[in-house]
Structures are given as C-alpha cells and as structure tokens.
C-alpha cells in the first residue's frame, strides 16, 4: 500500500520546479544549500544599505513587490496566491542576506552603517522616526537625565536620554524588520533591538561628546595655556591656587603695576620669556606690556618715596607732591622748598611770639660764648636786623666795647638771642656760598651752643624751633638731603646726623633727598631704564630707610623696592638678549607641549587612544599651530589681572562633552544598525518546531529554559514553537475531505503552508505531514 510519501505534492507548487533554498530551514544559509552560488562584495554592500535604510524591512518590501508584480512581469517566485509567492520570495531574500553577511561581512556591515546614516545626512541630522516618536524622546531624555546618577553635565545627560529614546526607536524598528515570522514571532526581536538600540543610543553621545571634548581641547588655546602654566608652576613647586592667591595679593598691593607673572618662580619667568621671544600674537602683547611697565617705574618710585617720606606732622605735603610729580629739576625743588618754608614759618609764628618773651639766664657758658668775635658781630647787627623785620630789639643786655670787652647789664630774652642766632645763620650761608666751609663749620658750632642754651631756658622756643628752625637751617637740611646718593657719607653716619635734626630740618632733608633721587632717575638716558640700580644696594637701602619716619614706612619701601627689582629683572630677561642658552632650552621645551597637552586633555576619554596616536604621528606643523594659538592666551594669563580665571573658564567650556543633534541621531541610528547587522540570527519559531516536536513525540514535556539556552532562542520564541507544535499534532492527526479543507486547517492553526505537504492518505482522505 502506497504511503503518503508516494503521493504527488499538491501544496506549495511543484517541488521539482523549485530551488533547494526555497525549502531550506530559515536559519541555514543558502550557501550551504548551493555551494556553487556566491555573492560579491558590491552586492553585499548594496543589500546592507537597503537593509539599514529600511530598518530591516528590505526583504519584506522587495518580496511583497515581486509577489504583486509576478502575474504581470514574472518577477520573483511563482505561486497560486500572492501569499505563496510572498513567502517564497521572503525565504530567498533572507537566505541571500545571510549569505552576504557570511561571505562579505565587512561590506555587509559597512552597507548597514551607511544605510543607517543616509537618512540622517539627507535630513541634516533630523530623526526619521515619526513625529510621535520625537515627541516621546523629550520626556524620555528628561527622565533619563534626572535618573542619571553620574555627575555628567546636564546637556550631556539630556543628549544621552534623547539618544536612548531615538536608539530604542531605531533598534526596535530594525529588530522588527530583521526578524522572521508573524508579528508575534517578531516581537522578541523588536524588543531586543529596542533595548540594544537604547543602550547604543545612550552611549553614542558620551563617546561623541568625549571626542568633541578632545577636539575642543586640541583646538583650545586656553586649554593649552593653562596646561603650560600648570606645568611651569609644578616645576616652581607651586599649585595653581597658590599662584592665583599671590597674584591677587600683588595686584592689591601694587595696582596697575603688578602682573601675575610676578607671583611665579623661575619657570614662570622662563615661560614669559619664551612667549616674548617667539614671533606671534603672544610676543606682540608681552613686549608692550613689559615696556610700558618698565618706563613707568621712575614715576612709581618717585611717588612712593614722596608718600613714604612724609610724617603725619609734615606741613609741606601738598608742596612736596608737586616735587614728586615733577621731573626732578632744580626749579621744582626750589618751588617745593619755598612753599614749605613759608608754610612752616606761618605755623610756628605763634610759638615764637610767646617764646621771645621768655628770659635766658646769664651763665658763664653764655658769657664765654659772647667773647667770640662772631658773636659780638652778630650782637652789633641784631638791632639792624630787628628793624628790618619790624620788631623791637630789647638788647643792650651787655655793654660791648670797641676792644671786644663787655659788661653784663641785664638778663637777655629768648627773642634777643634769636636775632643773634639768625645773624649767625646768614653768616654761615655767606661763607658756604663763598666756599669757606672751614670757617662756616666753626660758626655752626658756636650757633649750636647758643641754640642749646636757648632750648634749655625756654621749652616754648624749643617747640617753636622744632616746627620751624629758620630758612638757613632748613636750606642746609635740603642741601644735605641732596647728598644722599654720595658715597662720601655712610649710611651709619647719615643715620646719626639725621637723629640730631629737628623735625623741620628732617623735613628739609627729605625734600632734598627725594629731589636728588628723582633728578638722578630723570637723567638716565636709557629708554627702559632700570632705576632700581641707584637704590637697591645694601648701603642705599639703609640710607633711604634712615630718612623714613617709621618702621612701617621702611617695610613698605623695602617691599616696594624688591617688587620693582623683580619687575626690572623680568623686563630685562624677557626683552633683553642675554641668557641665550636658557632661552633656547625654553624654546625646545615648548616644542613638546603639543603632544603633552593633547595626551593630557584626552586622558580617560573613550577616544583618547585614537587621538593620542594621531598627535604622536603629527608633525611639527601641528605643534607649531597649537603653540601659536596658545601664546596669546599665555600672555594674557601672565600679564593681565584675571587672565588665568578667564583662560580656565574658556578651557572648561572647550572640554565640555556636547555632541550636536546631528551626531546624536545619526550615531544612534548607525549604532543600532551596526549592532543588528553584526548580530547573528537567532533561531526562528518555525526552526524550533522540529526540536519541540521530537520531545512531544517521545512523550516528554519540553523544558522551555533548556531549549532556549541550547539553541540561543528566546523563551518567548520557544513557548510559541511549543504552541505551534501542539497545533501541528492536532492538524496532522486529522483526516480532511479535500486539499482546501487541509489548507484552512493550517491557516487556522497559524502554521506556514510551505513547511507542510498535503497528500492523499491511505483511507482515501487528505493528510497533512511536516516536511522535516
């Protein structure tokens, strides 16, 4: 008796007229069915492009079109119905896709990526998802950004959320399109594609953002400048915070003069020198800044000396300020002295008026003093001097003979003796102008003894003289101050002399000293004179300190002079032609800054390896371009207050990971296409039915988890296969009156007609049997 195997095939077309791959299990490549058939790389590339461009629906789309056009154009496979032709076409297309991936994996993958990117390029980065998908991406991205625990910039978290939403859409569509079977069979693949796409889409912004941050760091002159400054500070043993604090303190103490570079050490100075000696924007900024500061140094020192040398009781402040702002000429000094003397005289007049009425006891010392010829000459001239001043001379306290003998007649007043003292002042001035300094010194000694007696007898006179000693002594003090730069008097001797001066005389000395220093600085012919050379020796430091009014002023002057010495050193080093060897070393060291900087900027980023290899292979032009762009910023950091903070802010912005929307959507799409293109095909539900069937026939309830693990299928697919296998048992156990009834039974059970044969059975009816 003939079995169903001997019966003619009545379903699914003629078996002899069909190729072997048409009846092959879906999971097996067509190449294994027909070893003589191959597919080229170009064709694999095109199939990959179509697959990526249509989210994996290329096989269904082309199969449906071919099935529809078959009755007219003869395209695709033949069949009685559109569904039969479509099923046969789909099986063939999928077999070719698998063959392309196995024979030309690179071309197939490249095609998938290209197909995924083409919509992004054509739309300027817009997502191809429906508008509803776009609307959903916003809330999803916001939720992702809020849920993110890592300290990522808000913009990057938002980008990651958007990328995850878009990637899920791409991956879900691709998984749905690339899977096989009906909607239920495709659902697991769609879900898997959505999960994979979301992961890739969320990761793409981080990778691309890191790449953009690396490129931004590479192109950021601020990032380069900050790195160079940090490296120099590290060699100087300073942190960047210490450098910033010291720079701020210097700016507060010396506003308008201090530069951040002054807060650094030898290596910071070397960096400034390197920028000043390298042609470019940095040099054109550093040189004018240092030149202007050095040219203003005499003015700063003059004003500082003028301010520090004033005591609280000085009455000549306004007049002295004129001198401090002048060129140091004799005219300016003379005006300052005249104004100061007039003011002093007015201030002391009430004290002198009171003191003149006080008597001075006649003593043997005073009597011996009047035996001196010069004292007798002054006594005779006193009456005439009083008349010239409009005052009454109450002298006649001695009876002076022509031979120089005298007898005391009364007790002299302080006012009478003051006329004699002034006459002695005039005598001293006349002798000094005549060059008779020896005689002038003797008369000064006599005058000093007279003054000491008057001070002892009249405290009021002593107080008045402290306020104003008189024009002669004041001018003497001014002239003495003008000798401060002379090497003929030591700092120790000067300090001792200043200790014997009255406040008004000390005031005159200061005016003369400042005048001499200003005059010396003003006469220096150098374009950028280092005027600290006149003041920075140990001896000159001590001389200036001796004339200052208190310790606070001395400390301020010492600090200022140290600052100005440093400023001159900086200018000389950066603008001069010395230290050639050191400068060459600085330049050579700068040549390596490009690679060091970029490797530092890219450290820890996903694309760090790629960029570091690129930089290491780059030539001198890359390094030179980077240094040229950063020199201007280095100049700002080292010469401008606040330059470091500005550079750090710009460097931080340049390193932010902010991928543009074009890269987010395109990257998400490309990533999901790439992932799904490279993913090996999972077993289909239909391919799982034979495995489940064998266990059912053996009377064993299939273990869904074990089958899924063994075959690599999802448990959902195994459950569906078990359901269909049980349906298969039902339809294959039945007997049908005709072929149509058998086909309807297969359709109702959800079984593919191509996997079964409908043949006449031994009982005369029709039976359904599985092909495998």
Automatic annotation (TrEMBL):
Residues 1-21, 306-330 are annotated as: Disordered. Residues 309-324 have a biased composition (Basic and acidic residues). This is Uncharacterized protein.
